[in-house]
Specification:
single chain, 326 residues, alpha/beta, elongated
């Protein structure tokens, strides 16, 4: 690791052409006030607009800028991981390119890091420019995740945070494919502190986390850190089985000791649908876990780097990436 870099700022981007120039300007302005060496690591996660070309041009005349150009879209969490693999700084900051998280907060993170905290994460107290549905589902996700996992993952936090070099090195040792970075940061431990802030609305462009991606991120978070859904399925299965057995005893009693005619169609269909629905839900939960086991056993690299601009690429784990030669 180079000793000349004090701070590495990781900025994953996907189709952020409308905002990337302002993102560069604001982060550059903030980091310039530190008076210490830094690098801006823009990770292009398969963008189809011109944001990668813009950053590539910046790297030709700004030696602090580096572009990690992935070969396709591998996902936000993987793009963050690629940035951590290439980061050279003593402290690493992760911030999205959409400017919903204020770059000016980085200075406060740095101050907390200098007094001894190895992880400084930003906690949202207000979310501007988001629908009530988005706010409600995000709040629900964090609280379900908190009660589902065996580790303490702070609620109302994203990936906007500063981590120490030792934390980054430990995260690089974790090989899982379906990554939930904020959960992994909590898992590795170290001294952590929250900084509260109000999240802004997007400066321009559209959200890169629609409902489908939010659901996947939620499943990654829960299945990566908890097997409680499997235990819950077992508990529900036991309750339904007991209820079914009691109902069977009731039916036998009516058939043997009374003259009542058992009207079975409606009740049978109701019970069948209930049990079949439960079985399908349980199979779906099992499928999520089995699918992640399958991903881990394939042994494919986590991402593929197409090109690196603005400096020589660092040595990263071979299981993690493939460097294409041009």
């Amino acid at each position: 690791m180079s000793t000349t870099i004090r701070y590495s700022i990781i900025i994953p981007m996907f189709n952020e052409e409308a905002v990337i120039q302002e993102t560069y300007r604001r982060i550059k302005k903030v980091m310039g006030t530190t008076g210490e060496p830094y690098e801006l690591l823009f990770v292009n996660d398969g963008s189809t607009d011109h944001c990668a070309e813009m950053i590539e041009e910046y790297s030709y005349w700004d030696e602090s800028v580096r572009l990690i150009d992935l070969s396709r879209n591998f996902g936000h969490q993987v793009a963050i991981t690629a940035g951590m693999d290439y980061a050279q700084g003593d402290a690493i900051v992760i911030i999205d390119a959409d400017l919903q998280d204020p770059p000016e907060l980085i200075l406060e993170m740095i101050e907390e890091w200098k007094v001894g905290f190895e992880v400084v994460y930003a906690k949202r107290v207000k979310r501007r420019g988001e629908s009530l549905f988005k706010k409600w589902t995000a709040s629900l996700f964090y609280r379900v995740l908190r009660y589902s996992t065996d580790i303490s993952i702070p609620v109302d936090t994203g990936d906007f945070r500063l981590i120490d070099r030792k934390v980054c090195d430990q995260l690089k040792r974790l090989p899982e494919k379906n990554r939930f970075v904020r959960g992994l940061v909590s898992w590795v431990g170290f001294r952590q502190k929250a900084i509260e802030y109000e999240r802004d609305e997007r400066l321009a462009g559209e959200t890169k986390y629609p409902l489908k991606r939010m659901i996947k991120l939620s499943l990654d978070g829960i299945t990566s850190f908890s097997y409680k859904p499997l235990k819950l399925a077992g508990y529900l299965g036991g309750v339904l089985s007991a209820a079914g057995f009691l109902y069977l005893m009731y039916v036998l009693y009516l058939a043997i000791f009374t003259d009542s005619v058992v009207k079975g169609w409606a009740s049978m269909i109701g019970i069948t649908l209930t049990f079949n629905g439960f079985v399908l839900v349980m199979l779906g939960i099992l499928g999520e876990y089995v699918g992640r086991i399958y991903d881990e056993t394939k042994g494919r690299p986590l991402y593929i780097v197409q090109e690196v601009y603005g400096g020589q690429p660092q040595v990263v784990p071979e299981k993690r990436k493939i460097q294409l030669n041009k």
